[in-house]
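Per-record layout

source: Lepisosteus oculatus
name: Zinc finger, SWIM-type containing 5
length: 999
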Amino acid sequence: VFECSCTFPPVIPGFHLSGTVTEPASQSEPETTYKVAISFDRCKITSVTCGCGNKDIFYCAHVVALSLYRIRKPDSVKLRLPISETLFQMNRDQLQKFVQYLITAHHTEVLPTAQKLADEILSSNSEINQVHGAPDPTAGASIDDENCWHLDEEQVREQVKQFLSQGGYYGTGKQLNSMFAKVREMLRMRDSNGARMLTLITEQFMADPRLSLWRQQGTGMTDKCRQLWDELGALWVCIVLNPHCKSEEKACWLRQLKKWGDMDVCPLEDGNYGSELPNITNALPQSSNLSQDSLARPRRTVFTRAMEACDLHWQDSHLQRIISSDFYMSPAYQREGESLLFNSQGLPLWLDHVPTACARVDALRSHGYPREALRLAVAIINTLRLQQQRQLDIYKHQKKELLQRGVTTTTNLEGWVGHPLDPIGCLFGTLTEACRLEDDTSMDTGDSGEPKPPVYHHVPVWGCQDSGESYLALALEVALMGMGQQRVMPEGLYAQDKVCRNEEQIIARLQELELDEVLVQTLRKQSILLLEGGPFSGLGEVIHRESVPMHTFAKYLFSALLPHDTDLAYKLALRAMRLPVLESTAPSGDVSHPHHGISIVPSRYPRWFTLGHLESQQCELASTMLTAAKGDMLRLRTVLEAIQKNIHSSSLIFKLAQDAFKIATPADSPPDITLLNVALELGLQVMRMTLSTLNWRRREMVRWLVTCATEVGLRALVSILQSWYTLFTPTEATSIVAATVMSHNTILRLSLDYPQREELASCARTLALQCAMKDPQNCALSALTLCEKDHIAFETAYQIVIDAASTGMTYSQLFTIARYMEHRGYPLRAFKLASLAMTHLNLAYNQDTHPAINDVLWACALSHSLGKNELAAIIPLVVKSVHCATVLSDILRRCTMTAPGLAGIPGRRNSGKLMSTDKAPLRQLLDATISAYINTTHSRLTHISPRHYGEFIEFLSKARETFLLAQDGHIQFAQFIDNLKQIYKGKKKLMMLVRERFG
């Protein structure tokens, strides 16, 4: 609901709009009315006031409502002359009446001001009387005045401060990015507030308390934060490159940038404080020159590029002609000559350093000169093409020598992908923007809620004779050139991370292009140039050892080219599979970067922080090729060879093997045998790679390999069983491989006939015996189990155990096998192994909870059940090995309860008589038990504390039971007690307890 009055002058420069805005009542709030006043100047709001008092960077709802009302209903808003015009028409009486009424209406607010002004007007030498005329807020500015939007500086500061204080919480980055976008929008509208707003933002960024904290701790700032700083730096470059800024303005910015850059806390261009120090490389013997290097290098902050850009100007006449005309060509007579201003077709070139040239394009585009930006972008691309052609010609002459040396230097000292100024992204964006189809639905989101990708069409390059040239094709071409540029991996985690991120951003934008015939031609042409390229191309035949890998880029090229030129697609992807930094040593002769030679560090490369990510990208590329090559024997072979040659990480090869297996065995159709074989071969490679190194996924890998071999068939299984020693440890071969192969499930899965089953079983038994010989400790039991059904093999396995028992086996392994033998119905063999186990055992007096006690009791029970002879044979072994009184008395008690020989072995006569403790072999056991009780008692008494007295008396009671089994046991026990009283008479309380119980 509006009641508005509006006044503005007939001259267009500016006007004033005022009105009241009523906000309807809600459930919680009554109806409220606000007075709103807005000043305009050349279509911009220059100041606002509103009764609501809301403070924000953005206008309050009431200001927006009044503005929209004026735009939508211009006829309903009363138009008035400026107030000065109205006053001019009044006579003296009317003027007096007007002033008095005005003061009366607002006397509380206006009276002091009116009094002061009256005094000044009546004083002849007052300042007010020195100036001709008087101000009129409704008349607007003069046509020559600067014009800019109303900017509430305090609010900008507050908001940025608030967003920064919220740290990395979700949404704050978005908010700050939208403020940066706001700055760009201001620049595009040529609003002088743009630079002011960026200054305010920067001041708050520099005042962020976290900066000094990060610096002190030497920790890096978060990635999100780093990206915001990058954008800030790039925006300053844009501001100082404004083609129409005055030199004093530029000088003022330079002073400001220098002041920020000199502050200790100012973030550095290539990353954080801590991680970029030369300490990582200091550990390397040959890096003394590097640390000198780092110290000598000038400190580059996020503002350094903007400061450097202050030296650039737009006065160059060639540059002026490029950006001001679509038809700027070289004069015909100059074309034959080698002119640096034009190419052979007569089109203009711009030979600036590429990122700098692109920064100019970005500045033109950002400051609202899109057409000029396009013209300069085209000149840059013509230059890049010419350079590419020249480098190709030079390479053709040196090719033979370079290939022989197998090494190259990189010609590009600065990579364009991951560069702080994003030159490739800038050119691509400038060119595609000119090709965008602006339809009404471009802002709509698809079903997923994501914005729809933009729709592009071909727009011919203005003023270009070659009608085939379109801005869209140029955009694709320059993106391919930039991504394919050979460049050395930059230093530091942040810079390396940025390379990956920027690459992914460019590829995401490339994927939005629908490849028609024109674009496919561009793609093919550029791909061939990159393949043939020398040192300028990352896909050339020879690359520098520390070159940024091309896997991610090649994966895009492969998928894009595959439907149109399969051979080229594979050629590119296979070439890109390499990762030279992981080859064992740097080739000699590579002197271009002496301090990059990391070959002296065993196994890992401390400078390559993103190596893990790069290796997984290499794996992705291989996986994409494997999927595409399904069913094509020859292609699969080549891809397999590339994987085996270039991928050095076992877990990634395993992942590829699993991928290939999945693709080869779809649920709804028969398996693809060629791809299955590739999966198996990769699996075998993983087995060989991880056989001697520890790998926590090894068990999973072994199980998977057996599954894969089973899927391939009988021959594959036979083959892995026969060559087990190159693939598995003996334990894996018996307990996982052979056991799985012999399982019922495998037999069913392969639906084998009898001869085939026998062949498999025979291979498994041979393996089992070989493993038992190699590692009897861990494989003997598995070998016996696997050989159960074959008498000769079983006997051989048993003999291996017996031979190893005296040297290589522990008592617990022998007891386990002995129990297995008893369980299989071989009690005498079990007895033999149990006897061997006893010889390895030693139980001290205090080990009454030792895990082997159960085995000892079982062995004695087994001997007792076999008969008197066996019991007589085991008891001396027990006496020798066991010194624990309670265990010995337990064995003694069990042996005296029943007669030996109740196992009922055929041909044996069992006497059925109980054995006497006075005669051998039990006499020996009884003596040993009594002696163990005596020794244990003395051992316990040396360190006994009063709280254990009760427990000790119980122990003596148990001892008395054993003493009494001997004929003169009660005499022996009485003597024993007397001895104790004599020796330990100092322990009065304990001896009193002994007397009470035993007299």
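summary: Confidence is low (pLDDT under 50) at residues 1-13, 273-294, 586-604. The chain has six domains: 1-79, 82-118, 151-274+300-312, 313-438+456-540, 549-582+611-693, 845-899+915-998.
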